[in-house]
Amino acid sequence: MFNEKAQMMKADDIRKLQTEKMLKMVRYAHDNVPMYKRKFKEAGISISDIKGLRDVHKIPFTVKDDLRDHYPYGILAVPREEVVRFHASSGTTGIPTVVSYTRNDLDKWNDLMARTYCAAGAKPEDIVQNAYGYGLFTGGLGFHYGAETLGCSVLPTATGNTKKQIQMMYDFKTTVLACTPSYAIYLAEASKNFGYKPREDFDIRIGMFGAEPWSDEARASIQESMGLRAQDVYGMSELYGPGVAVECPEQKGLHIWADEFYVETIDPVSGEVLPEGEKGELVFTMLSREAMPLLRYRTKDIAVINYEECDCGRWHPRIMRIKGRSDDMLIIGGVNVFPSQIEAALLETRGISEHYQIIVDRDVLDKLYVKVEVDKDLYESEDYNQEELLKRTSENLIAVLNIRANIKLLEPGAIPRTVGKAKRVIDMREEHDRIEDV
Ligand SMILES: [Zn+2]
Fold first, then answer.
1. How far is the CA of 127 from the centre of ligand 1 (A)?
2. pTM here?
3. What is the DSSP letter of 62?
4. Pick from 290-294, 342-346, 382-386: least confident
5. How far is the centre of ligand 1, averaged over its atoms, from the C-alpha of 6 (Å)?
6. Which of 46, 75, 366, 384 is in the most buried spot, having the most CB atoms within 10 Å?
7. By the 8 A CB rule, do 299 and 89 touch?
8. Ramachandran area for residue 250 (φ above 0: left; ψ -120 to 50: alpha; else beta)
9. Tens digits of per-residue pLDDT, 371-386?
10. d(C-alpha 189, C-alpha 172), whole Å
11. Which domains does the chain have, with CATH numbers?
12. Distance from the alpha carbon of residue 47 to the mean position of ligand 1, in angstroms
């Protein structure tokens, strides 16, 4: 097992190490990042007020805008010369969020990613095909160096050129596929179109799928069509990148590597820390990052944390699958709707494919439109009854959402395919209806 000592830490040891690292980190961030010195001063607290994990709630939050405000070099705690790499994510505002890494930060991230592969079931003898985008996005290099650190053979195919991708998967007998879940769904479909039978022709055992939320139904669909075990990986560029948390083979939540990330769950509106086991926004403190310390970073991801021992023997707390992002949540006619709920309802409907788009618009009232492709086999069969399928889809959506959707069934292939994160939700309404402005 890669870094077994860290992976198998007991709850008490995790707590002890978190406390030690937290106290050090609070001082380090305060003394080296002017933004934190200012935040502490404005909140009227000093580092001596933080004596243990129970005091962490006194520390002000860090939000994405703090990073944008420090474009381009970010919240640096070290001289720029000590930075060995930058990554960036594009934001809707046009100003990218830049993150920076020292040599030690990269070593730590590689260790976390190697553990992530290992905990998901990958082994040094695996052949890893990495179809995440390489570049400023953290997915490509994160999954690449993590697999190398574990000792795997890496095929850095990156995104795109799907035909070549599938050819290499076949020729090299790829055993681990790393990509977004939506691209995995597309690869399964495309390989059938190129004449392959994915379950028989490919040797992939494990999928390392992350970078976007996906439902249990999407997992079942990928596992079924590709004959692999689809493992969820969580992370974001602000927190190194992928490798913050990962599912073990039990698939009962994603283990957060708690020796490096201290997690809290807060009420997204009031900012109050919620008791253990309650659903709320995840907030992370990075416990030993050098270049860019982050204290209490608000992720906008909504989930429940489970602190009990997992059947795999790990005590690292588990994210019980991300239900959605607070900024992805749609309020339609006063009802809270997560796109992942719509996806789940669609995939439960027999005869419906996994390719869909959600459009929200308003004339007088909010209206929800769902465009979805009919499953190819059904579409081409004589049994296809559009009216009956429409009725079943509509019933399944109402059962989950409690609101009526205008559904449009499309022929297979009608919705544009993407190689990265899928653009599945289009909100045509005014911006002030979104939760970040509430
Ligand atoms: Zn586990």
1. 23
2. 0.81
3. B
4. 342-346
5. 14
6. 75
7. no
8. alpha
9. 999 999 899 998 899 9
10. 20
11. 1-326 (3.40.50.12780), 330-437 (3.30.300.30)
12. 35
